[in-house]
Every structure is written in C-alpha cells, then in structure tokens.
Design goal:
Helix content: 40-55%
Largest sheet: 4 strands, antiparallel
Strand content: 15-25%
Radius of gyration: 13 Å
Structural class: alpha+beta
Oligomer: single chain
Order of helices and strands: EEEHEHH
Number of helices: 3
Amino acid sequence: MSERICVLAWQEPGVTGVSRGVKLHVCEDARLMADELNREYPDIHHWAAPATDAELALHAAQAARLMALETP
C-alpha cells in the first residue's frame, strides 16, 4: 500500500461493500476531492484510501508520474 498515492473510495448507505475508484491521485488531492464529494452527496461517505500494491502495479505509469510530482 502507498502512503502518498490514493484512490477515492466510497460507501453508500445500507451497502456493506466499499467501492474504489480506478484512477490514482496524490493523497492530498484525493482528500480534497472526497471532502467536496461529501458536501455534494452527503448520503454517501467518500474518503482517500491508500492505493494497494495491485492498484499501483496495474497503473504503474500513472503511479510513477504522481511519485515524480511529489519528489522535490
């Protein structure tokens, strides 16, 4: 799992499963998006979830670009 790269995750009321987005984001950006989505759709809980190793491997090129942006 990554501490710097996240996906948006959400859970709808009455649903036990958690849905996860497929696009990777810098975690701070994902947190901001989740906050905005929570304001727009208050019945659905959104948050920034650390990307799993499988998600990072699946989107390796995108993860590399995001990591490069985070490196000073």
